[in-house]
């Protein structure tokens, strides 16, 4: 299981030396500069979650995508805060919590996508014979 | 990345690379632990890209290209950060986070194209129904 982000802040090591803090700031810089893209992903996942929620059947997936969007926003905020305070323990704790948010968001996205693909294939295998395409999913995917 | 000790006042040359540090392991640990989920998601993104490419329009092909590239950067980010967890080198962590940043950029572009495709498909379907009436 993934630990709670708070755990990282609680167990953060002793403050880093000036040179280590500078190396830490340089290491997280590429990701900390991409928080705008992370928030853009959050907004787009949020929009997709609303669209899925409208279909009612997609409500569980909408919940998962909403959670993903929330995690992306939280990770972006934590990275921004870590960039402002690179000296440990706050900076390292915040950045590690942000990386944890990103890891959890991949688990949710992978599981949700796997379930969606399996449901999609199941649905196709059920409706293929009804549409007169035999039982071939390949035919249906090709458009008959 | 410039090593932090590059401008030492005593005039000595700086070390060529920042030495391994325990904080790199702490920072890379979450993605190192969940790297297999990242690989699974990257494989799914790649499968979707292939499906989109097979499907048709130029907009699909563009979305497929962005999707395939984002899958590559996600795979690279997870594997490089996993290596950083072992090596504890700040340079490895920086390379992993740079790949992750590129993933987020391409993921945003893929999602935007996906939503655009959805809107185009819905409008085309509505127009077809209206024409039929």
Key phrases:
heterodimer; A: 144 residues; 6 helices; B: 133 residues; mainly alpha; 80% helix; elongated
As a whole number of angstroms, the C-alpha radius of gyration of chain B is 22 Å
* Global structural class of chain B: mainly alpha
Average pLDDT reading of chain A = 83
**How far do the termini of chain B sit from each other?**
64 Å
Number of strands of chain A: 0
Stretches with pLDDT under 50, minimum 5 residues of chain B: 1-16
Count of individual helical segments of chain A = 6
Helix content of chain A: over 70%
| Order of SSEs of chain B | HHHH
Our Rg estimate of chain A from Cα atoms comes to 21 Å
Overall mean pLDDT of chain B stands at 84
Given helix and strand content, the structural type of chain A is: mainly alpha
Can you summarize the main beta sheet of chain B?
Answer: none
Helix content of chain B: over 70%
Number of strands of chain B: 0
Quaternary assembly:
heterodimer
> What string, H for helix and E for strand, traces the elements of chain A in order?
HHHHHH
Shape of chain B: elongated
Summed up, the helix count of chain B is: 4
Major sheet details of chain A? none
What are the segments of chain A in which pLDDT stays under 50 over at least 5 consecutive residues?
none
Structure description:
- The complex is a heterodimer of chains A (144) and B (133).
- In chain A, 78% of the residues lie in helices and 0% in strands.
- Chain A contains six helices and no strands.
- Chain A is elongated.
- The N and C termini of chain A lie far apart (44 Å).
- The mean pLDDT of chain A is 83.
- Helices cover 80% and strands 0% of the residues of chain B.
- The longest helix of chain B has 43 residues.
- Chain B is elongated, with a radius of gyration of 22 Å.
- At the A-B interface, helix 2, helix 3 and helix 5 of A face helix 1, helix 2 and helix 4 of B.
């Amino acid at each position: 299981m993934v630990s709670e982000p708070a755990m990282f802040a609680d167990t953060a090591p002793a403050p880093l030396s000036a040179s280590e803090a500078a190396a830490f700031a340089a290491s997280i810089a590429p990701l900390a500069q991409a928080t705008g893209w992370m928030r853009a992903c959050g907004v787009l996942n949020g929009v997709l979650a609303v669209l899925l929620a409208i279909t009612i059947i997609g409500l569980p997936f909408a919940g998962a995508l909403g959670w993903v969007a929330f995690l992306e926003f939280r990770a972006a905020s934590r990275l921004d805060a870590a960039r402002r305070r690179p000296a440990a323990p706050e900076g390292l704790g915040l950045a590690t919590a942000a990386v944890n948010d990103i890891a959890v968001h991949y688990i949710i996205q992978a599981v949700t996508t796997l379930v969606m693909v399996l449901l999609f294939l199941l649905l196709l295998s059920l409706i293929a014979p009804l549409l007169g395409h035999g039982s071939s999913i390949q035919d249906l995917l090709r458009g008959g | 990345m410039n090593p932090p000790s590059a401008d030492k006042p005593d005039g000595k040359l700086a070390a060529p690379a920042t030495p391994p540090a325990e904080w790199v392991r702490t920072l890379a640990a979450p993605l190192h632990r969940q790297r297999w989920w990242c690989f699974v998601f990257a494989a799914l993104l790649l499968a979707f890209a292939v499906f989109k490419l097979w499907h048709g329009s130029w907009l699909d092909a563009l979305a497929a290209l962005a999707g395939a590239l984002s899958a590559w950067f996600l795979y690279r980010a997870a594997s490089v950060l996993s290596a950083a967890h072992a090596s504890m080198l700040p340079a490895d962590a920086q390379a992993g986070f740079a790949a992750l940043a590129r993933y987020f950029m391409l993921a945003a572009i893929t999602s935007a194209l996906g939503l655009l495709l959805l809107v185009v498909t819905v409008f085309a379907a509505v127009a077809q129904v209206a024409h039929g009436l």
